[in-house]
Write a structure and sequence with these properties.
It is a single chain. This protein has about 400 residues and is an alpha+beta fold. It folds into 4 domains: about 25-45 and about 320-390, conserved putative lor/sdh protein from methanococcus maripaludis s2 fold; about 45-60 and about 225-305, Efflux pump adaptor protein, beta barrel domain (Elongation Factor Tu (Ef-tu), domain 3), CATH 2.40.30.170; about 60-90 and about 185-225, Beta Barrel (OB fold (Dihydrolipoamide Acetyltransferase, E2P)), CATH 2.40.50.100; about 95-180. It is about 25% helix and about 35% strand. It contains 3 helices and 25 strands. The chain has helices at about 1-25, 95-135, 140-180; strands at about 25-30, 35, 45-55, 60-65, 70-75, 80, 85-90, 185, 190-195, 205, 220-225, 230-235, 250-255, 260-275, 280-285, 295-305, 325-330, 330-335, 340-345, 350-355, 355-360, 365, 375-380, 390, 390. Strands 1, 18, 19, 20, 23, 24 and 25 form a 7-stranded mixed sheet that branches. Strand 19 (about 340-345) and strand 20 form a beta hairpin. It starts with a helix and ends with a strand. Residues about 15-20, about 40-45, about 210-215 and about 305-310 have low confidence and may be disordered.
């Protein structure tokens, strides 16, 4: 009986020892090296930078009034499409209508006065001619001739005065017509009303109305050109150097996580915000659809430029480039300017030297030393040695 127990103990000892060693092994977090196929031109279109912002219209305007007054008509609601020059609102203008009518009547009166003045001047000119003819024959006196000349000069001056009165009256008509036009609010460009900021009967002003913060500056509507939408985002100063002109990007809306839109970097603003250490960036959405609306939250992933295929037509394509191997940044350790990765195989960790390539967000390109699919340790624990047993966290 004792012999049987001894034999059983001897047989179970290796398994028990292995179990104890396994329990004592350090617990590690792992990830897998991944491969990305490089395109024929050598581009991977991998993500370079991620930023979050909001959808805005490239052309957007808070449309306001030129003169103060009470709104008589509004010809729009949210969603109304407008064309450049359309009257979208009117301010009450009965007083200006009356002024315009008075100005036009003043023009008519001045024109009638000019006709009378011209007729009187013509008669004075004929009288002067008669006096000159009589003076040649010695029939009239010098005093009569001088009086006729003076009368003709005065009537000529009256004609010029009447003409000036007409010009002044017509100018007042144009001023009044412009004042009347200023009571119309016109769309500055083709677009869609995305926000209605006033109602009929409200008093508005070019400088806003006290207590009505929603209409500061006299704005009664916000119009946007939804044909060109973009994402307004901010990038850290440390990351601006990664952005290149017309850099491609992917745009994802928080409301529609499964839909990815194509984007292109349009502008990096020429100045930074010293308080936040950021630079504002605008990314054009190239294939926006009705789901994309201003003020939506969006995430922009900037990617590398796709290299163009420069092969001659009919030329046989060359062999595909080898895949690029990526590992998480947390898997890379450094010692004496040499980079290493810990690889797990069969529950045992081994350290491998690698050549580190470019950073890809939270991943790093590894040019040799690790193959796609191999298991690597994240944040390797201090004191880890080659051929050490490890336990996979969560297993």
């Amino acid at each position: 009986m004792i012999a049987i127990l001894i034999a059983a103990g001897v047989a179970a000892y290796p398994r028990a020892r292995a179990y104890v060693n396994e329990r004592r092994a350090p617990e590690v977090e792992i990830a897998h090296a991944t491969a990305v196929q490089v395109s024929a031109g050598g581009s991977t279109a991998l993500p370079v930078l991620v930023a979050t912002g909001y959808v805005v219209a490239r052309h957007s305007s808070d449309v306001g009034v030129k003169v103060g007054g009470r709104l008589a008509r509004l010809k729009f609601e949210e969603g109304t499409r407008v064309r450049k020059g359309d009257v979208i609102a009117e301010i009450e203008h009965a007083d200006i209508d009356a002024q315009l009518e008075a100005s036009r009547r003043a023009v008519a009166e001045a024109e009638a006065q000019l006709v009378q003045t011209i007729a009187a001047h013509d008669e004075d000119v004929r009288t002067l001619e008669r006096q000159r003819a009589l003076a040649k024959d010695g029939i009239t006196t010098n005093a009569a001739l001088t009086g006729a000349e003076a009368t003709a000069a005065v009537s000529a001056a009256r004609v010029k005065s009447a003409e000036a009165t007409i010009a002044s009256a017509r100018a007042r008509v144009r001023v009044t017509e412009e004042a009347l036009e200023n009571t119309n609010v016109r769309a500055p460009f083709n677009g869609v009303v995305i926000k209605k900021r006033a109602e009929v009967g409200e008093t508005v002003s070019p400088f806003g109305v006290a207590g009505q913060a929603s209409r500061e500056g006299g704005a009664i509507a916000t119009i946007a050109d939804l044909g060109e939408l973009e994402v307004q985002t901010e990038v850290s100063e440390n990351s601006v150097a990664k952005l290149l002109p017309a850099m491609p990007a992917e745009v994802k809306l928080q409301a529609y996580q499964d839909q990815i839109y194509k984007g292109r970097l349009r502008q990096v603003f020429p100045s930074a915000d010293r308080a936040k250490s950021i630079v504002e960036v605008r990314v054009t959405i190239l294939d926006a659809d009705p789901h994309v609306k201003p003020e939506m939250t969006a995430t922009v992933t900037f990617t590398e430029h796709q290299a163009q295929d420069t092969r001659v037509k009919g030329q046989t394509p060359g062999p595909p480039a080898p895949p690029m191997v990526l590992v998480p940044k947390r898997a890379i350790t450094e010692q004496n300017s040499q980079h290493f990765v810990w690889v797990v195989a069969g529950g045992t960790a081994s350290r491998r030297p690698v050549t580190r390539g470019a950073d890809r967000l939270d991943q790093v390109e590894v040019r040799n030393g690790v193959s796609a699919g191999e298991t690597v340790i994240l944040n390797p624990p201090a004191g880890l040695k080659d051929s050490t047993l490890v336990r996979i966290k969560g297993s």
